Amino acid sequence: MPKFLIAGTVAYDSLKTPQGERPRILGGSGLHAAVAASILLKKINLLSVVGGDFEPQYLAFLQKRGVDLRGLKIIKEGQTFAWNGFYEKDMNVAHTVQTALNVLTQFDPVLPPEYLDSAFVFLGNIDPALQTKIFAQLPARKFGALDTMNYWIDSQKENLLKAIAETDLLFINDAEIRQLTGEDNLFRAARVLLTGRLRYVIIKKGEHGAMLISAERIAIVPSMPLDEIVDPTGAGDSFAGGFMSYIVEHASTAYPQDTPLSAGGMDWDTLRAALVYGTMTASFNVQGFGCEKLAEITKADLDERLKVFREITRIS
Amino acid sequence: MPKFLIAGTVAYDSLKTPQGERPRILGGSGLHAAVAASILLKKINLLSVVGGDFEPQYLAFLQKRGVDLRGLKIIKEGQTFAWNGFYEKDMNVAHTVQTALNVLTQFDPVLPPEYLDSAFVFLGNIDPALQTKIFAQLPARKFGALDTMNYWIDSQKENLLKAIAETDLLFINDAEIRQLTGEDNLFRAARVLLTGRLRYVIIKKGEHGAMLISAERIAIVPSMPLDEIVDPTGAGDSFAGGFMSYIVEHASTAYPQDTPLSAGGMDWDTLRAALVYGTMTASFNVQGFGCEKLAEITKADLDERLKVFREITRIS
């Protein structure tokens, strides 16, 4: 199995949704992606930062899931990044009460030597200058994917475009890609970005599903119908983590280590299947607070739900 | 082929979209549905009303498409229902400049004798009291479908619920079903309505596709990816017209005339295929102003696009 690196935030989230509330539970883009990816993969390299308040039980939890913590910097005198927010009836909109960046302001993403040959990379939503800095340490990577958010489009568009120029695949939501490109039509918006190394754009549409777009092809997958959303936090991160884990698992057999994927591109059917796997993963993520539901399930649960999903989306 | 009745408005639309403008072109819920359905079906019974200003060339156009006009009342001293509106960049939102109901206020939906044995019925968006009045004239109908809009939910909710109690299938959009039921979750919202005769709800989500929901099952279809929307007017009506035409065409062989479909329900695979056909039909509708694009295409065009759509939505 090739090495897979996830970089992103590890956070304490304090959440309130119509289904209840939870103070200081595990959250963050890197955390959700890593927990999601560890359903399929035995080993994940995590690059992130936490403070001295980060509980040992959480370190043990991650280690047990095969998350390598040599890249998790613990700044003892600092506090872990913390987000406090709530959702009302329309759970597509997160309302922020408070964001305390804390140790995140000191995050210097230097890869430990053991991570330097990571072939697959997912960079969760962090400062795009840091994303570029991570890619720069991985000149031989096979396949990099990057997620972002509207905050960086507003405040650091140039840096974000630089980071995007270094990635093979971009995760972005529908509002963000419209904002970034000025194009209202999502397919035209994706094609504005598809130049240079960037070969694939995945547009996340929340409850409306996701679309994978390359210069030549499109794949569209609706989201899994659910009667109840408990907590949408981390849906996009777990989607990306699930997607990437499928790519890593299958690329290891489909592609010999010495073939740069970015040169020839990725097999379309693998990407499409990964899109569906990411969708299944995210559907479990939102059925519990934080990553509590993801932490309970196995590959068998994903596969079982996939059978139902196939029947729902089958086109005869 | 069993008889198929479409009731709804026939209108003069004056439109402006980012792609151009058209004064006084053919529009209306009944018109869009009838033009859409006539791609598959050789004969459609139309029940509607127009004024003395309705041009003979449009009557000839409809007749040529197999639309029976014995149910199209012409009130010579009146003016045809007219809608004047525009769309901005976000074409999900129609902005109304002026609505002139004109002869629509005198619409008394009495079926001509030749329509009274219509087995399949689609009632486009009109006053729900009139919808109920039409259903009452068709006690032996096999399968009725009904569309509505937020205006009637606001102003005539009780009458609308009465009309819904008489239909087998309800077309409604996501915002409307939330408004009508007070349920934010679309699957729960559909189940609130699924009692009595109503067995199927189709939730239209515009660019995000459509969902067919019964008490036991769900089918989800995304919309066809398009680089450009010329005019979204009538998308929902043409979707319903395309859907119903597929049902009528296939029900004629699958169900003998003397089996009431409402008793045993419709074959799920036929409904699901109709959902896809409606999606293809609507995708052509929005590629031209009014119904100009629909009027150009044939079943072969729908089938060709369907092949592309299958590839885009295939889940391996």
Automatic annotation (TrEMBL), chains A, B:
Q: Name one GO cellular component term.
A: cytosol
Record-level Gene Ontology MF annotations: kinase activity
Highest taxon, organism lineage: Bacteria
Coiled coil located at which positions? none
**Keyword annotations for this protein?**
Kinase, Transferase
InterPro entries for this protein = Carboh/pur_kinase_PfkB_CS, PfkB_dom, Ribokinase-like
Where do the Carbohydrate kinase PfkB domain residues begin and end? 24-292
Q: Which protein are we looking at?
A: Ribokinase
Task: Give the organism's phylogenetic lineage.
Answer: Bacteria, Bacillati, Candidatus Margulisiibacteriota, Candidatus Termititenacia, Candidatus Termititenacales
